[in-house]
Amino acid sequence: MIRVAIxxxxxxxxxxxxxxxxxxxxxxxxxxxxxxxAARVRAFCAEHGIPAAHTSLPEMLDxxxxxxxxxxxxxxxxxxQAVECLSAGAWAWCEKPACLSLAEYDTVTAAxxxxxxxxxxxxxxxxxxxxxxxxxxxxxxxxxxxxxxxWYRGHEYFEVPWRGTWATEGGGPTMGHGIHQxxxxxxVLGDWTEVRAMAGTLDRRVETEDVSLASVxxxxxxxxxxxNSLLSPREESYLRFDFTEATVELRHLYGYRNADWSSTSxxxxxxxxxxxxxxxxxALLLDAFERGERPPLSGAEGRQALELVTGLYASxxxxxxxxxxxxxxxHPFYGGARR
Length: 339
Hints:
This protein is of the alpha/beta class and 339 residues long. It folds into two domains: 2-121, 3-Layer(aba) Sandwich (Rossmann fold), CATH 3.40.50.720; 123-283 and 302-326, Dihydrodipicolinate Reductase, domain 2 (2-Layer Sandwich), CATH 3.30.360. It contains eleven helices and 14 strands. The strands form two sheets. The chain has an eight-stranded mixed beta sheet. The chain has a six-stranded parallel beta sheet with strand order 3-2-1-4-5-6, sandwiched between helices. Helix 1 crosses helix 10 (278-291) and helix 9 packs across helix 11 (299-318). The protein is globular and about 55 Å long. The N and C termini lie far apart (47 Å).
């Protein structure tokens, strides 16, 4: 059995990670949970039948020796905790955003020594996205895409101390919310070359942006319009891909099934119906663990969306186009976005 630990026992751990782990109970067992709040972690373990509760990550790693750690803590803690896990020989599966900057991401990757760190990006793994990537070469050249994350978070959402600041969240809807849709966009269109963007704080009492807009050019010549918002009362996640021979669209909110996709192509007929979920990605992560291979959404693949977010912020806050090739270690935004 693959020994699994969960770090951070807030909402996402119980809502998404534990159901995914239950679906893999034939090969993975949760042996411990960690939270700085002792009462909360004890209650979490009692509710879910987890044998060991800890308030210290190093203590848990030493005592329990897990094979895989699910990191479900606030974003500013991700990089250091992932490095701790890797240094102890445990794989890390980290909630989005993986970390606050390309510099942090590269530090995590450098700590991989046979154990790997992967980022949660479940929208790549639903059957609709997998089918689109399979048939895309038969749909002609990609020309145009729309990528919209129009969500709503009221003022009360930002009362949690770590939300809405550059130092602890690393950004607003661009970094913490739209990154999922942008990752799916990248999985279909490949690497980008240039971004021109704007960002603003229009209504929420936060340091970060609450809206961003970007125009993106890809290596294959395609162009995309990207919108990220937390101010949209009618919430929707929307992706549109226009190829020379067909249009493919996806409308959903926080996750999709096949029924949420549509296409003008007769080739649109996914052979199965797998939701975009933590379960879909976790299954592939565990497969990779059993084979001792790099898992999906780690290394260069896991860095893709963070690169686009970094370029978007750099363009928005400098007022000029940014090319992906510029984002080297000496770039001002390599260490994180700041206004």
